[in-house]
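Q: What residues go here?
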């Protein structure tokens, strides 16, 4: 998806004819005096539609109108904003997304959009407007052959009393990372292999002047990556262990660690998954994709902190060399793992990633992302990511970032008692917990075993939030980009 350009303009300075003019309508407030003065006939049409109950201006309700005698735009698109007392930054993001989708349906290239709710929201919230437009108009068409010459929105003019170009551009930069994450997830697993992720990481590192190290299968035994090596045994596709180092803050700045599960396809291994829905297992790399999306933004905006990113990446397949239930693997930190279920493989490759990053770097905070457990979908559905931690103050920062961005997380317990569920009789730990009990928490307890003592750490399970079967608002069907905006808000607070 190519991202469109933004300009910022006052209403009176809008030039040329737009393909669509998007504006917001509150259910309990009149249109602005400026709008009524500029568009008296349009104002009357809206008033009549509301009076007849055909347009109630509920949040995300829309109405398209045509004004042949108006030179400003070919079409006018009214977007409901709901009640003014309930209106907030995410309402703006949603309304902008609704407008962006409609603009696509209308095949509009040039679009004008009011900074809706300007009298209520600060100019900095133009970031939400930009995010909503871009994320809401997202399309993945790379594998579709089409004769349609329409390629999408090309230019958006945001109308405001003040210059809001800077936050619009920042929102565009953030959204570009979300788009990259979604694109990586949407690619089929025969394209988005571990090598593809490594190549993407190399391109990002080059653009952001980052150090990058990539370990291959032949390095795993020497490095001690027993978890990744074991999971990768059943696939002929080369696995990768990717390390990206961004030094933007100097020696005294905070250092953030990121680890992303890069399981590019998961058959379940010997503990094979049911065939129904197995195609969706190309999404099992969305944790790694989120980390790459974040690092692509970092390369662009260059925050004044340091970031270490690690992505262990492989397939989990059923070849003759595949690891088996009953096997024992040794992770990077020397702990032994009894394998009871080869479909609990994500935690095995994350174990090496977490152990490696905490043994080799001094971190002020560490976050791992993974589509790890079906249990988190049962617990939270698809609206929140699950979060577990060994440091409450660090978790509180992420919870606040989730509220601010609506890239939301919900904390689950990680008391020491849960560690008993993963104790093995013949190894240090086993890779599953108690049957049908606290599956998400058991996975978190497992991962905690590989985080070096003293490192503030949060595990974020995006199995429910990372992709959707039915899209909504600015989140499409398929990969959502969960985690990207969450971490970028945290990074902003750390600068």
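A:
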């Amino acid at each position: 998806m190519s991202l469109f350009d933004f300009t910022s303009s006052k209403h009176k300075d809008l030039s040329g004819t737009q393909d669509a003019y998007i504006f917001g309508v509150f259910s309990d407030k009149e249109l602005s005096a400026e709008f009524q003065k500029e568009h008296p006939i349009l104002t009357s049409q809206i008033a009549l539609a509301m009076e007849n109950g055909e347009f109630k201006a509920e949040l995300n309700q829309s109405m398209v109108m045509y004004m042949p005698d108006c030179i400003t735009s070919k079409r006018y698109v009214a977007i409901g904003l709901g009640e003014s007392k309930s209106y907030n930054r995410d309402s703006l993001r949603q309304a902008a997304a609704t407008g962006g989708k409609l603009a696509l349906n209308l095949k509009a290239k040039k679009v004008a959009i009011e900074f809706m709710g300007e009298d209520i929201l600060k100019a900095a919230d133009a970031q939400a407007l930009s995010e909503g437009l871009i994320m809401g108009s997202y399309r993945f068409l790379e594998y579709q052959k089409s004769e349609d010459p329409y390629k999408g929105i090309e230019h958006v003019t945001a109308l405001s009393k003040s210059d809001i170009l800077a936050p619009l551009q920042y929102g565009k930069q953030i959204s570009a990372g979300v788009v990259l994450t979604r694109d990586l997830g949407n690619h089929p697993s025969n394209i988005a292999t571990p090598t593809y992720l490594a190549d993407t990481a190399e391109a990002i590192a080059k653009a952001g002047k980052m150090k990058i190290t990539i370990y291959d299968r032949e390095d795993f035994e020497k490095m001690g990556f027993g978890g990744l090596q074991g999971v990768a045994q059943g696939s002929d596709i080369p696995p990768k262990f990717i390390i990206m180092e961004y030094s933007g803050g100097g020696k005294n700045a905070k250092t953030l660690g990121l680890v992303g599960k890069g399981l590019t396809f998961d058959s379940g291994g010997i503990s094979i998954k049911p065939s129904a829905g197995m195609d969706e297992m190309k999404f099992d790399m969305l944790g790694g994709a989120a980390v790459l999306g974040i690092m692509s933004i970092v390369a662009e905006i260059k925050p004044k902190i340091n970031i270490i990113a690690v992505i262990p990446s492989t397939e989990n397949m059923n070849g003759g060399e595949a690891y088996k239930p009953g096997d024992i693997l040794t992770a990077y930190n020397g702990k032994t793992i009894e394998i009871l279920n080869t479909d609990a493989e994500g935690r095995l490759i994350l174990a090496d990633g977490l152990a490696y990053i905490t043994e080799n770097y001094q971190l002020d905070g560490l976050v791992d992302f993974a589509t790890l457990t079906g249990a988190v979908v049962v617990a939270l559905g698809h609206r929140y990511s699950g979060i577990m931690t060994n440091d409450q103050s660090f978790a509180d920062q992420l919870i606040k970032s989730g509220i601010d961005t609506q890239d939301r997380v919900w904390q689950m317990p990680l008391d020491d008692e849960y560690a008993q569920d993963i104790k093995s009789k013949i190894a240090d730990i086993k890779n599953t917990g108690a049957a049908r009990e606290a599956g998400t928490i058991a996975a978190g307890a497992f991962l905690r075993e590989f985080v070096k003592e003293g490192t503030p750490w949060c595990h974020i399970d995006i199995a429910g939030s990372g992709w959707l079967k039915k899209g909504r608002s600015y989140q499409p069907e398929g990969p959502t980009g969960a985690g990207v905006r969450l971490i970028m808000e945290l990074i902003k607070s750390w600068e």
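A: Context that may help when evaluating the design: Residues 165-186 form the longest helix (22 residues). The chain has two domains: 5-163, 174-494.
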